[in-house]
From TrEMBL:
InterPro entries: Phasin
Domain Phasin: 10-110
Protein known as: Phasin domain-containing protein
Organism phylogeny: Bacteria, Pseudomonadati, Pseudomonadota, Gammaproteobacteria, Lysobacterales
Length: 146
């Protein structure tokens, strides 16, 4: 196999491994995004249901006394909404951290594997260079001896 063919096949293999890594990274990022969207939608749905329930109870208010009983539920709804929003934000943060850790691990593995391949190639070239230089020294000595 010629040097050009070796370089071409190595370049193609490197490009394929980079494309595979990019696809895996995209898959990890999309999975994280999907999980975050799911958390947000669940929180939103829960809040909408609680708000609709509260608004329905406001529709039943007919006098001042019934209005006084509704206001504490409104404050409780606001408190509950804030707590659920905070809990959802913590979940989203956790998913984002885990996704970033997975992407970091993927990048680290890719860098390590690329370094190993490059080290092997450098060692192979070094071995070929040493053989070639030894052969050249022999030829020069032989030419000088004539």
């Amino acid at each position: 196999m010629s040097t050009f063919e070796q370089v071409s096949s190595q370049f193609l293999a490197f490009g394929k491994s980079q494309a595979d890594a990019a696809l895996k990274a995209q898959s990890l990022a999309l999975a994280g995004f999907e999980r975050i969207a799911d958390i947000e939608l669940q929180a939103f749905e829960s809040q909408v249901n609680a708000t609709v329930e509260f608004l329905n109870s406001l529709g039943e208010v007919r006098d001042f006394e019934s209005a006084r009983t509704v206001w504490p539920r409104g404050f409780a709804l606001a408190k509950q909404s804030a707590e659920k929003a905070y809990a959802a934000s913590l979940e989203v943060f956790d998913v984002a951290v885990k996704t970033n850790e997975a992407l970091g691990t993927l990048a680290k593995e890719k860098i390590e594997s690329t370094n190993e391949v490059l080290a092997q190639q450098v060692n192979a070239v070094k071995g070929q260079f040493e053989k070639s230089s030894e052969e050249l020294v022999k030829r020069v000595k032989k030419a000088v001896a004539k």
